[in-house]
Amino acid sequence: MVYAVAFAADNGGAFPGNNSLAAGPGFTAEFTTITNPLVENEGKAGPVTAQAPITSQNPNPRGFIFAMGIKAATS
Length: 75
What we know:
It contains no helices and 4 strands. The chain is elongated, with a radius of gyration of 13 Å. It has one domain. By secondary structure, it is mainly beta. Strands 2-3-1-4 form a 4-stranded antiparallel beta sheet, with no helix packed on it.
């Protein structure tokens, strides 16, 4: 399982900015009413690329994403 937290600041550094984020391909947003910061997860096997596109049209947003993989326990 991969969890990612993404956020976007405005060009002037205000956080959270007026920039909305969307879950990346294959990811599911965890808290659908909050678009900045965005928490998303992905549960497939194999390589995963965490993405969170900025969907607003505000000029020069600053986007950041932190991702962590968690290995499932097997018995």
